[in-house]
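Weekly structure sync, notes
Attendees: PL (lead), two postdocs, one rotation student
Agenda item 3: pending single-chain targets
PL asked that the sequence for the first pending target be pasted directly into the notes so everyone works from the same version. It is reproduced below exactly as submitted, 846 residues in total.
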Amino acid sequence: MIEKGFSKPTDRIMRLKKQIIDARPHVESERAVLATQAYKETEGLPPILRRAKVVEKIFNELPVTIRDDELVVGAITKNPRSTEICPEFSFDWVEKEFETMATRMADPFEIPKQTADELREAFKYWPGRTTSDLASSYMSQKAKDCIANGVFTVGNYFYGGVGHVCVDYGKILNIGFSGVIAEAVRHLEALDQMDPSYIKKQQFYNAVIISYKAAIDFAHRYAAKAQELAGRESNPTRRAELEQIAKNCRLVPEYPASNFWEACQTMWFIQCMLQIESSGHSISPGRFDQYMYPFLKADQTISREFAQELVDCIWIKLNDVNKTRDEVSAQAFAGYAVFQNLCVGGQTPEGRDATNDVSYMCMEATVHCRLPAPSFSIRVWQGTPDEFLYRAAEVIRLGLGVPAVYNDEVIIPALQNRGVSLADARDYGIVGCVEPQAIHKTEGWHDAAFFNVAKVLEITLNDGKVGSTQLGPVTGDPKRWTSLEDFYGAFTKQMAFFVKYLAEADNCVDIAHGERAPLPFLSPMVEDCMGRGKSLQEGGAIYNFTGPQAFGVADTGDSVYAMKKFVFDEKKISMAELKEALDANFGLAIGQKANAVGAGELTEGQIYDAVRKVLSSNKSMDVTALKEEVYRTLSTDTITAPAGSSKYEGIRRLLDSAESFGNDIDDVDLIARKCAQIYCLEVEKYKNPRGGQFQAGIYPVSANVLFGKDVGALPDGRPAKAPLADGVSPRQGKDHLGPTAAANSVAKLDHFIASNGTLYNQKFLPSALAGDNGLRNFASLVRSYFDQKGMHVQFNVVDRDTLIAAQKDPEAYRDLVVRVAGYSAQFVVLAKEVQDDIISRTEQHF
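Predicted structure, written out during the meeting:
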């Protein structure tokens, strides 16, 4: 029997989980006030030393909070699942939302009046002093115009910290913070004063020493707090726990961890302090099973049950981290997403299977907690044990949207192609949504921008214009195109133009972070900042990249195929007629949904005729083959407008009848591949200020919904402002030939050059994964997709009726977790339009 099932969580874990589920996220002011005071006090110091003094003040004065039942302590905020503000990156958007953040559509936060008053006072210092201000001053007006017109956005790092990093947790576990200080002292003593970089390096090492002494004090403050609580605790069991917590915090992370509990506490302190230093999200725990397993293996006194409870506690703590964004960005990152990606399995740097006991404990913790964080991932390769994949499938079919699954056979060579060594590539982790990274050696700047490929298609169809504005270059009136090559020529020129300004905008923000926001606490945990004597933001890492991600690939591919089929090949409509229909939004009011062509809206006679045509041609009675042929027949027949409807509706139905990406049809899939390649190959031409290369990704977070509002009607029949396809997934409802056909289409994209990550969503009915047979089918699907060189796949296992019921009665479904894009979230906290996007995805079955 393949099914193993899972143990039940302890009562402690259920109580801690309830705190998270019931929490109402708040904005708090303490960090902003302390940071502002530190900046005022350090006006004459260089940036790296000012940042060290900011860290010192925050670590020494931020309120210390230990929540009931905790075994692993350390909190960013007083209230559960709340957030602090980091005004050194940006602040004005917060002030504008003091009255509306609690009621906005996506990710609302409470802001008490006293908090707003304290923030308002702190913000008086910041005009002209933020990284956002500096980046804006560097950016050309053309780049700003591209952003304003929905071609791309760099708002992620424009408004906040960078994050998107996996640090060397193992280093701290083995040498402690005191070891980092000793390392900095050694480098200081070895400096050559004749070296022109001496002054900068000296400042960096001094900043590290200041930061790490303050970090040790932060842990000691928790030791004192735990001892204080123990002195007031009447329950002897809890008193003993608090006394042990106090002992742990006096020892770690100042010194190396000596047992598994200390290792768990060290790991969490690192994670917590990284979040406090910077507002960057996607600070990812990386290969948790690799750096934690040696401490479990060596701990001869801990029971397996208590060790599991400690891991469960870390899972709870990861859900306590939260972040607020501006109203627009909140829609793109809907679901209080913080993207702390934790990865297990895969290979060792030597190329052996890396699966261990902690790998399975992470699956158990995910089931015990059933919360959105961490963004739990597994790595799969040819040497992955079947048992590991079956257990992952058991987690996936619970409907939590995790683990996401990554293919070593694609990611390792993709990283090597970017200059990463074989051993480092084998040791990759996932950060953020889906971004592969050579862990603790990379400043990847993943998620550096959202780039709207479908918007570039729309601009191409309008000769470089957005409305009446000539935003892009003049590339020719589409009505004069005589072949698909005319389109590709124009599209490629428009793509080159807009990617150029994307790179400019990203580099302006990159420079601003290097100049105004170097991070002296984070940097020593990434190689080779200590050896080079410079912060991560100034190029201290071994590997430096910038990774903007595209979305709208399937929409573009389907649109280009529809033009090829109906305009250039079959000549059923002219480009002039197509343009007229697009400009008129197919006769639909803006926001009005069009009915898709499918069996549900065809007459009984149309279906009968299609079936009769198939049977008369091949006499097949195989149900699967028959269904596929019927769909192909329906999609290739001309569908005319019903009597009384507009001519535009007839054109829309014709376009919508074209074969679509996601059904294993080479003619369609290879066009989508080419459109994606045009973007990816253009991106990789550029360099960043840290000496690294741009690399493309294809994933949307949930921006496919938000930025779909910036895109007019498309030649695939999609009306204006409708959501775009997510990541490399087919358009919603268009992959109608089953999960294997859909996966085959996605695998035809060139995942190797999209080395910043690709994201593929599939949604299954729960019955599809039921029993041992469902697990076998699932494992076979993953192995087959990966054999064809797909990079990533993730799953929602939930039926449409459950999601609709949750929309109607959110209180009854507060613990329903779904996969949005590269992250999971509570379904009921998502904006309705994001919920609708998830509901509209094709429900697959075997």
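Discussion points:
- DSSP finds 33 helices and 20 strands in the chain.
- The first helix runs from residue 11 to 22.
Action: rotation student to compare against the earlier draft before next sync.
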